[in-house]
């Protein structure tokens, strides 16, 4: 299992403008084979900080995601939305375990 955890930043005033593109990205990604979880969440203390959580079944699923047209469209929207800072880290994890 692979996890991508991190953040993207956009101007707080652009959040409502970015919402449709973000929703489209989340919905399309969740529909992909091998996507176990995909979410964006606004930080409660920093309105321009979006927390990203992705969980993928395996490398093949993640590689397919990287080639998906909706990912290219999402990245193409970044300049207009003011998304410039991106800090995402890939982790390899074992099986899910309840805490």
Task: Describe this protein with a few key phrases.
3 helices; 99 residues; alpha+beta; globular
Can you offer a commentary on this structure?
By secondary structure, the chain is an alpha+beta fold. It contains three helices and four strands. The chain has a four-stranded antiparallel β-sheet with strand order 2-3-1-4.
What does this entry show, briefly?
With 99 residues, this protein is an alpha+beta fold. Helix content is 37%, strand content 32%. It has a single domain (9-83), classed as Alpha-Beta Plaits (2-Layer Sandwich), CATH 3.30.70.100.
Strand fraction equals: 25-35%
Q: Write down how many β-strands occur, each being a DSSP E stretch of 2 or more residues.
A: 4
Low-confidence stretches: none
CATH topology: Alpha-Beta Plaits
Shape: globular
CATH class: Alpha Beta
How do the helices and strands follow one another from N- to C-terminus?
EHEEHHE
The Cα radius of gyration reads 14 Å
Strands of the widest sheet, in order across it, are 2-3-1-4
Query: Cα distance, first to last residue?
Result: 17 Å
Helix and strand composition category: alpha+beta
As for the number of domains, it is 1
**Mean pLDDT across every amino acid position:** 95
Please outline the helices and strands.
Elements: E1 2-9, H1 15-30, E2 35-42, E3 49-56, H2 59-66, H3 69-81, E4 85-92
Antiparallel strand pairs: 1-3, 1-4, 2-3
Helix pairs in contact: 1-3
């Amino acid at each position: 299992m692979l996890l991508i955890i991190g953040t993207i930043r956009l101007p707080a005033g652009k959040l409502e403008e970015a919402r449709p593109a973000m929703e489209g990205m989340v919905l399309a990604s969740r529909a992909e084979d091998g996507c176990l979880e995909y979410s964006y969440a606004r930080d409660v203390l920093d309105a321009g900080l979006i927390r990203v959580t992705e969980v993928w079944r395996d490398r093949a699923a993640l590689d397919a995601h990287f080639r998906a047209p909706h990912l290219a469209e999402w990245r193409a929207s970044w300049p207009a939305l003011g998304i410039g800072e991106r800090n995402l880290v890939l982790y390899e994890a074992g099986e899910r375990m309840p805490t």
